[in-house]
Specification:
This protein is an alpha+beta fold. The protein has helices at about 1-5, 20-30, 50-55, 60-65, 90-95, 100-110, 120, 125-135, 170-180, 220-230, 270-275, 285-295, 335-355, 410-430, and strands at about 10-15, 35, 115, 140, 145, 185, 190-195, 200-205, 210-220, 240, 245-250, 265, 275-280, 310-315, 320-325, 330, 365, 370, 395. It contains 14 helices and 19 strands. Strands 1, 2, 6, 7, 8, 9 and 19 form a seven-stranded mixed beta sheet that branches.
Length: about 425
């Protein structure tokens, strides 16, 4: 036991997504001894479909193939394959719980390279959609991105992993944490949280290794966090699941398509506060397109013939808290009538924009709904208190799983802000 006890840290962070890397970086900057554990490896071959396939939890996707919800295992987490869209933490989600992330969001904005893109990187296709939408009376505008425009080549392949390093990912903060003295262990699969005298005391890995710490932060996603919490005796975890249902709506506009267009660089959130709907141009790559149409039924495969001609606009919605994380990799996530109503309203708006831009209604194709952000499985107010602490003292969660409801919007800016907020709490706790 004495030999094990030498492996002691102030903070152990399980999971290296945007939130986990933020906590690791912030606590390292505060002079704390930090261990960052990542179940996956560090994929460096970025910018290809193979990159995404290596990061996605394929067994979980196949186990739940009727519900397309993506889970990611790799250093940097889902931020590696995010579109780089920067929307701030929505007040309507957190204000009812008395949580104000304004200060943390401002801190993050300065550090995540957040800015609107120049017109030449936004692209002609996106600017054409913006013009069509606004001519109908909608309020589209450029959307801020966590992308360094000076490094961006305008490939439009943000969701395949950024080859040039122009897009901010959790790896930026993770690498800063390591440079500041944090320990990073890849391919480290955590089995259990060690609980002693009602407090979190460390973690046990599946290979038998054990590490001890004054605080444990679970940032490994809506599935893995749940299983660790349940094994620690917190049965409420995983009862209810959000995923920000989205539908890619395709249309053929003569003279343009979405190939090479910077995703989500324009769009609107004007329908968000009232209806929980975001509308942003973004296209699935060929593999995701193929997967969705294949799961939609044989006749949908005919849509592949138009893949190179399509312009794509996404509707993303705040979905209901329904479903459950089950044993192993299984989960349930039904699409409710309310979810369907929101998606249909977004499709109707997008259809008007496509037609205004020159698309024939017969060419417009709303794709099967897919889940973008597994979240709300370890909700604040249900599993966690307002400080993101569980009923087990010194055991915290910090990632999209803590959202009190669906965000229905890009999550990176929000989880980084939560990571900063938690770090301030931990600093005070660990004095």
């Amino acid at each position: 036991m004495k030999k094990e006890r030498k492996k002691e840290y102030d903070v152990i962070v399980v999971g290296s997504g945007a939130a986990g890397c933020t906590v690791a970086r912030e606590m390292t900057k505060k002079g704390k001894k930090v261990l960052l554990l990542e179940k996956g490896g560090r994929m460096e071959w970025l910018g290809t479909t193979a990159t995404v396939a290596s990061m996605i939890d394929i067994p979980t996707l196949l186990r739940n193939y009727k519900d397309i919800v993506i889970f990611v295992n790799n250093y940097g987490g889902a931020s590696n394959i995010a579109a780089g869209c920067a929307l701030p933490p929505p007040k309507k989600v957190f204000a009812p719980l008395g949580i104000d992330l304004t200060g943390e969001a401002e801190e993050a904005k300065k550090e995540l390279w957040i800015q609107p893109m120049p017109d030449e990187l936004v692209g002609e296709n996106n600017m054409r959609l913006l013009e069509a939408a606004n001519s109908l009376g909608y309020h589209w505008q450029k959307v801020e991105k966590f992308i360094n425009a000076d490094k961006c080549t305008g490939s439009g392949n943000c969701m395949l992993g950024c080859k040039t390093g122009a897009k901010w990912t959790g790896r930026v903060f993770g690498d800063e944490a390591v440079a500041g003295g944090a320990d990073l262990k890849l391919h480290a699969s955590v089995k259990d949280v060690i609980v002693e005298n009602g407090k979190a005391a460390g973690v046990a890995l599946k290979n038998g290794e054990r590490y001890y710490g004054k605080a444990v932060v679970l940032s490994s996603g809506g599935l893995n966090n749940v299983h660790m919490l349940r094994r620690a005796g917190i049965d409420e975890a995983g009862k209810g699941l959000c995923c920000d249902w989205l539908s890619f709506v395709q249309g053929i506009i003569p003279g343009t398509n979405s190939l090479g267009a910077t995703p989500m660089s324009v769009g609107t959130t004007e329908h968000y506060d009232e209806d929980g709907i975001c509308i942003l141009p973004v296209a699935p790559n060929w593999a995701l397109f193929l997967g969705i149409v294949a799961l939609s039924g044989p006749k949908h495969l005919l849509k592949l013939a138009n893949f190179m001609r399509y312009t794509s606009i996404m509707v993303k919605v705040q979905d209901d808290i329904v479903g459950e994380i089950k044993k192993g990799r299984a989960f349930s996530k039904p699409l409710t009538a309310n979810d369907r109503k929101k998606i249909d309203k977004g499709v109707q708006i997008i259809t008007k924009i496509f037609k205004k831009a020159g698309a024939k209604e017969s060419s417009i194709y709303p794709m099967k709904a897919a889940g973008a952000h597994p979240s709300a499985t370890c909700r604040i107010g249900h599993v966690l208190d307002a400080n993101l602490e569980t009923q087990i003292r010194d055991l915290y969660c910090c990632d999209a799983s803590v959202f009190p409801s669906s965000l229905g919007a890009p999550v990176v800016w929000t989880v980084v802000s939560l990571g900063k907020r938690l770090s301030k709490h931990l600093e005070a706790r660990l004095k």
